[in-house]
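hey
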């Protein structure tokens, strides 16, 4: 006789497993960092990133490859947002990734104030090819900073009886870490974004002076985030430190690579060293250390 979960509990566990599979397929680096999370926050963070990845894929190529027009991509994205908000209200979705995210949102206090800006930034990718500083900041807030804020809600509230509001310094740290992650990826993918997607997120960062300015901003954001990581719950610190240090290493390598060089990567051995360092409780590294 089976003693495992049944009904909604079984469905929710299956949804969590589906979200974990999405992340494992798309990001080995994130998969490594997620494994450093404690059991309490780990499935919830995976649930967030799975939804983010699915939404991102609607506007970043696969939907177009399937023959969808820009108008149809927008309709699919709108439908996904509606389904997410409905699932948060009802506690159920037939879409496993949406169901997993909604379960996390309900438990951890993630609402429309974070979800709506995310989908707004995803829509921007459908019809905006080039960004200036103002539109870049708005895009990064919705595409990355709010994801950091969603994760912060998980760090503080997963498993708690009721969600609490995070402290101001933690909010600032989460936003700046998300912004740093996004800008690092923009620099890494500069050529691919331009050639494959026809997008320029950094207003001409192929220029050396502009590129250095972006890297300086990244390093300042990483430093600000590092200062608050010790204030996170203990079962989250190692994972966030490892992720921070990975992007600090990417920033360092980007400074050493000329614009137009092959996509900057961190070797697996270095990633393992950074993860081990974080597990030992070492503080976050500086971007140039």
């Amino acid at each position: 006789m089976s003693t495992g979960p049944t009904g909604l509990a079984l469905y929710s566990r299956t949804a969590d497993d589906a979200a974990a599979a999405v992340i494992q397929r798309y990001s080995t680096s994130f998969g490594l960092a997620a494994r450093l999370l404690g059991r309490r926050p780990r499935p919830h963070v995976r649930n967030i990133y799975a939804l983010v990845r699915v939404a991102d894929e609607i506007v970043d190529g696969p939907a177009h490859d399937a023959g969808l027009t820009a108008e149809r991509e927008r309709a699919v994205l709108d439908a996904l947002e509606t389904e997410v908000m409905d699932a948060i209200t009802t506690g159920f979705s037939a879409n496993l990734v949406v169901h997993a995210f909604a379960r996390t949102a309900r438990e951890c206090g993630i609402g429309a104030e974070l979800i709506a800006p995310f989908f707004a930034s995803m829509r921007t990718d459908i019809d905006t090819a080039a960004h200036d500083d103002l539109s870049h900041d708005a895009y990064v807030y919705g595409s990355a900073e709010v994801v950091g804020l969603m994760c912060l809600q998980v760090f503080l509230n997963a498993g708690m009886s009721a969600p609490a509001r995070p402290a101001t310094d933690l909010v600032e740290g989460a936003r700046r870490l998300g912004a740093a992650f996004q800008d690092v990826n923009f620099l890494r993918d500069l050529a691919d974004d331009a050639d494959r997607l026809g997008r320029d997120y950094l207003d001409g960062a192929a220029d050396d002076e502009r590129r250095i300015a972006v890297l300086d901003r990244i390093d300042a954001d990483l430093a600000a985030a590092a200062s608050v990581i010790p204030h996170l719950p203990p079962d989250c610190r190692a994972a966030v430190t490892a992720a921070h240090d990975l992007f600090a290493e990417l920033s360092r390598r980007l400074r050493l690579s000329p614009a137009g060089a092959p996509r900057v990567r961190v070797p697996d051995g270095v990633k393992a060293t950074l993860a081990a360092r974080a597990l030992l409780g070492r503080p976050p590294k500086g971007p140039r250390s």
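The first helix runs from residue 7 to 26. The mean pLDDT is 93.
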